[in-house]
Design a protein that fits this description.
Length: 348
């Protein structure tokens, strides 16, 4: 029998960029409308590297929220070569930091202050391991001589294996995985290793970025890979394994910054995130595993309770706008101009 409505626990977004200032005010309520909580990425122009900066950023997020939404931003600490382990521990103990984010220096947007070599943060990682604080990893090498489509797989070989051997009890989320290699690595590793999967990496492969011309709105990092990898991600997402959960990596940039001679990386998927995931699970005949992926595996990994509220999804055609008018310009969303087959009807 065809499922036409679905009631599931309210999901959380375990990886999102909500920016700051006018952009923050323009985008945050799309996330807050659907998700109970979200892991807020710390890669602002001035990265969130201290408890003080995180508290101030959290306050700005909370003031930008529509009071209709009951939404909790979970803050992260941006690791640098000089991160003080005491700062990390203090932030975690005080409930300000939920996790730390590791950007290899130069890997992506605002990652210049990231970590230049993993050995520079050994003491921080020992501290995190001992207090049970998760490490969130942007898993790509940054060497320009490594092909962009190989950077995730090479990161696994060069860094991940070493990291899990050195810190066997450290909780690690391999963020926004894009390869079969990453799926296999996460599956083969112990229960401390999990991964987030974005809606867009489940939907298109690298050919789509170049279909009929260059499509800058499909460009993000890590970049989408071959079809075999997309299929492996879909299999992992719907598998019911507690190691895989939602993380949209919604990353808004203005249309000028995307459609440029040097366009920014990032897909803005926040307005229709849960609809996109629901459509993918439906295509795979796997709506029964959507709740685990969306709403249960993430909290379980982070040691939090699932949300008590529920949301209703309905099988119904919905049109995604071509663009959003934001800050005197526009942002082009994921699925722009398309019709999706599932509708988010709100909290129930
Ligand atoms: O595509 C991306 N955009 N990947 C990232 O890792 C960062 C993000 C952003 O902040 O724009
Ligand atoms: Zn991201």
């Amino acid at each position: 029998m065809m499922t036409n409505t679905l009631t599931i626990r309210q999901p959380d977004d375990w990886h999102v960029h909500v920016r700051d200032g006018d952009m923050l005010r323009s985008v945050i309520n799309y996330t807050a409308a659907q998700f109970g909580r979200a892991i807020i990425m710390p890669n602002l122009a001035t990265p969130i590297t201290s408890v003080k900066l995180a508290e101030a950023y959290r306050t700005r997020i909370l003031s930008a929220l529509d009071p209709a939404h009951d939404f909790t931003p979970l803050m992260t600490c941006y690791l640098t070569d000089s991160t003080d382990p005491k700062e990390v521990e203090m932030g975690y103990e005080q409930g300000v930091f939920t996790a730390c984010k590791l950007y290899p220096a130069g890997a992506t947007t605002n990652s210049d202050s990231g970590v230049t070599h993993i050995d520079n943060i050994t003491v921080v990682l020992e501290t995190m391991q001992s207090i049970g604080m998760p490490l969130l990893i942007h898993g790509e090498v940054t060497d320009s001589d490594i092909d962009i489509f190989d950077r995730e797989a090479v990161f696994i070989e060069r860094t991940m294996f070493k990291l899990i051997a050195q810190f066997p009890d450290l909780k690690i989320v391999f963020e926004h995985i894009t390869t079969k290699d990453a799926v296999d690595f996460v599956r083969a590793s112990g229960p401390k290793i999990a991964a987030t999967i974005t809606p867009h990496h489940l939907v298109y492969n690298r050919s789509a970025i170049f279909a009929g011309g260059i499509n800058p709105h499909l460009y993000c990092l890590p970049i989408a890979k071959r079809e075999v990898h997309r299929l492996a991600l879909r299999k992992a997402a719907i598998s019911g394994s507690p190691k895989f959960f939602m993380g949209t990596d919604s990353a808004p940039h203005t249309v000028e910054n995307k459609q440029s001679a040097c366009g920014c990386a990032g897909v803005f998927n926040a307005p229709f995130a849960i609809e996109s995931y629901a459509q993918t699970f439906d295509q795979e005949n796997a709506l029964d595993t959507l709740e685990g992926f969306a709403s249960l595996h993430g909290p379980e990994f982070y040691g939090l309770k699932p949300n008590s509220r529920k949301i209703l999804l309905e099988r119904k055609d919905i049109s995604v706008p071509d663009n959003y008018d934001i800050m005197d310009t526009q942002i082009i969303p994921f699925h722009a101009g398309e019709t999706l087959k599932w509708h988010f009807a709100g909290l129930v």
